[in-house]
């Protein structure tokens, strides 16, 4: 059984150990040590990386009794190695995990809102609360959590039996039997946890809630601690300052300014749509005047400057309303939008024509025999036009 140093010495960065066995894990070399400070993925916290001598540790897995170290090169049993943890990664995980304990305890103590699950990501972490939390609730709990951080309270670890744990004020019911490892934030939180934590809350730095959303009847909070919180602040600062500069408003005026822009854009899209519908009939008349006739069917195949997919569709509808028309219309900007259409009674399947064009020039779309629409075509527009003309006339 591997002696897990991280249980009692989470700040251990370097250690000596002996390789007790070697194997493979999913085709990669792996070793088991007699003792290790490498933490495996568990309880929402990701694994540690680092080195064993000159060999990289690229994954750490909890194998039950043993910890499996996936390595970049094989090590023979009996080899004495010097293990070194990637400390920046480990300390980041310690900040996030301890911050989660403090934040979850704040919601539990102030609002009786339990944390149901926890996940630590690369840039941020999440907790899922049992009940919905209002913006005011979140602010109250966050303020309380950060007060605990800034008070620099002690964080300690102890081991108790399940019977002893039953007599203690644990924040949540332990999920396992046997000896339990308890992590305590002085006078604030007591939880059973196997993860690594900082020794004092001040090392968390700060806790920042980045987002809140409804999730399975409760609230999912996205948060960051320490250096992650600082990076998130810089990203938000740059986004806000850039938006303020472009829109010429004060920071607190941004939401209202964006809402007004969205409303104006929606209104403009309606105006453009009406104008396109009106112009479509005129454009269809112009195109028909120059159409060529093949076996009694007027062919209209063009790349049209300044028209989007909706406009092309309106022009195609206007064209085919005249009767005896087969059309293939394309936008001018790549990747091209495409509309194929035919009048009732014309022996052309617009959807098949489009499907062949998409097969040859990429993109996606679909439709019916009388009207089909696609987007994402790439290639020489003139070649696309020539191919469409051949397909409409049955030459290709």
Largest sheet: 6 strands, antiparallel, barrel
Helix content: 25-40%
Strands across the major sheet, in which order? 2-3-7-6-5-8
Looking at this structure, what is the CATH superfamily of the largest domain? Threonyl-trna Synthetase, Chain A, domain 2
- The span between the termini is 71 Å
Poorly predicted segments: none
| Category from helices, strands and their pairing | alpha+beta
Counting H and I runs of at least 4 residues, what is the number of helices?
Answer: 9
CATH class of the largest domain: Alpha Beta
- Rounded Rg: 32 Å
The CATH topology of the largest domain comes to Threonyl-tRNA Synthetase, Chain A, domain 2
Structure description:
The protein has 396 residues and is of the alpha+beta class. It folds into three domains: 3-85, Elongation Factor Tu (Ef-tu), domain 3, CATH 2.40.30; 91-244, Threonyl-tRNA Synthetase, Chain A, domain 2 (2-Layer Sandwich); 276-392, Diaminopimelate Epimerase, Chain A, domain 1 (Roll), CATH 3.10.310.40. The chain is 36% helix and 32% strand. The chain has nine helices and 21 strands. The chain has helices at 5-8, 87-111, 135-150, 162-166, 226-247, 254-289, 309-320, 350-361, 381-392; strands at residues 3-4, 14-25, 28-33, 35-36, 50-52, 55-62, 67-71, 80-85, 115-120, 125-129, 155-160, 180-185, 189-192, 207-215, 218-225, 292-294, 297-304, 325-331, 336-342, 364-368, 371-377. The strands form five sheets. Strands 2-3-7-6-5-8 form a six-stranded antiparallel barrel. Strands 16-17-18-19-21-20 form a six-stranded mixed β-sheet, sandwiched between helices. Strand 17, helix 7 (309-320) and strand 18 form a beta-alpha-beta unit. Helix 6 runs parallel beside helix 7. The longest helix has 36 residues, at 254-289. The N and C termini lie far apart (71 Å).
């Amino acid at each position: 059984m591997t002696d897990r140093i991280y249980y009692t010495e989470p700040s251990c960065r370097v250690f000596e150990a002996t390789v007790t066995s070697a194997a493979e894990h999913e085709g990669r070399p792996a070793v088991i040590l007699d003792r290790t400070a490498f933490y495996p993925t568990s309880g929402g916290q990701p694994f540690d990386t680092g080195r064993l001598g000159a060999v990289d540790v690229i994954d750490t897995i909890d194998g039950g009794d043993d910890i499996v170290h996936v390595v970049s090169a094989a090590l023979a049993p009996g080899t004495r190695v010097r293990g070194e943890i990637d400390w920046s990664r480990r300390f980041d995980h310690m900040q996030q995990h301890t911050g989660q304990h403090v934040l979850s305890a704040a919601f539990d103590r102030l609002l009786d809102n339990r944390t149901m699950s926890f996940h630590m990501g690369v840039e941020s972490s999440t907790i899922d609360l049992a009940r919905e939390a209002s913006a005011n609730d979140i602010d109250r709990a966050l303020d309380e959590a950060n007060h605990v951080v800034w008070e620099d309270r002690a964080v300690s670890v102890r081991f108790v039996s399940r019977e002893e744990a039953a007599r203690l004020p644990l924040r949540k019911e332990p999920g396992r039997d046997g000896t339990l490892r308890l992590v305590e934030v002085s006078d604030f939180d007591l939880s059973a946890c196997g993860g690594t934590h900082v020794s004092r809350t001040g090392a968390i730095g700060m806790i920042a809630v980045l987002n809140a959303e409804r999730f399975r009847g409760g609230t999912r909070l996205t948060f960051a601690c320490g250096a992650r919180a600082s990076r998130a602040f810089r990203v938000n600062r740059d986004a806000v300052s850039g938006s303020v500069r472009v829109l010429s408003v004060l920071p607190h005026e941004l939401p209202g300014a964006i809402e007004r822009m969205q409303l104006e854009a929606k209104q403009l899209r309606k105006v453009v749509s009406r104008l396109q519908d009106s112009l479509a009939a005129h454009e269809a008349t112009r195109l028909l005047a120059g159409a060529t006739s093949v076996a009694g069917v007027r062919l209209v195949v063009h790349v049209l400057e300044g028209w989007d997919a909706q406009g092309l569709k309106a022009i195609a509808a206007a064209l085919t309303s005249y009767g005896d028309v087969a059309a293939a219309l394309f936008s001018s900007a790549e990747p091209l939008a495409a509309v194929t259409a035919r009048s009732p009674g014309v022996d052309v399947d617009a959807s098949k024509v489009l499907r062949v064009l998409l097969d040859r020039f990429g993109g996606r779309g679909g439709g019916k025999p009388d009207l089909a629409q696609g987007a994402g075509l790439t290639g020489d527009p003139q070649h696309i036009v020539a191919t469409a003309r051949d397909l409409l006339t049955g030459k290709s």
